[in-house]
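#structure-requests
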Amino acid sequence: MTLIQLRYAIAVAGAASMSEAARILFVSQPSLSASIKELEEEIGLELFRRTNRGISLTPEGEEFIGYARQVVEQYELMESKYIEKKTTKKKFSVSMQHYTFAVNAFVEMVKQFGMDKYEFAVRETKTYDVIEDVKNFKSEIGILYVNDFNRKVLEKLFQESNLEFHELMKCHIYVYLWKGHPLASKKMITLEELEDYPCLAFDQGANNSFYFAEEVLSTYDFKRLIRANDRATMLNLMVGLNGYTLCSGIICEELNGSDYCAVKLQSDEVMTIGYLVRKGVSVSPLGKKYLEEISKYKDKMLE
């Protein structure tokens, strides 16, 4: 296995066909095909499916490409620093469920690095994609929650994906709504009181299992349920339809504004928010700084 083969495999994974990848790499298609075939034979895995409509990664190929990207990126960083003597960019990426406080922690981390060269990425995405991003090295850290209902299923998936889950904080369940909502002034809300209002839930796409829901009580039979795929739409629905969502109760007015509030739900449910990382891979200094920022929100949780 050579560095050139890894670069070839990464290029093929990002192209629609072998011929397109060859054109991008400035090599002949037969030479590229032969190199990929030799790599597959050496590692004993089929990385790509070949059809008349083009090529696509196999499940084993997706995992391999994740490792390949990490190896090539690390080599390029070393080459840039020690051979070309360049000042390298600081790099960090994080994927998360739709938590405003997790985004704000990212903002605070970025602010601390001033005008230095950096390449950061933040992805608010679906639960399954958070796991896949960390598994495939697309993100160094993933932020999500577990509870008694989804813990066994998610922990099994973490183990199969060679990931570790670390607790950040435990939270009671709160109802997040706009301050003009008829129930906003209450000290505690019951599920029965919420029946006349639409519950808002984040759409999980193809992996729309109860276990991948971002909201607790995913198996509860809500009379009115609206799914959306981004946080801005959720906030609009809260105002326009008196909708609500179930959350951790961690308020982040810096990004969402002061027009919303969280009221404790009458429930014994507890959610554990934590972070995912690859097993055996040390968290980078930037990752540690991000976790330090997000941990500060533990002190801002509502009682």
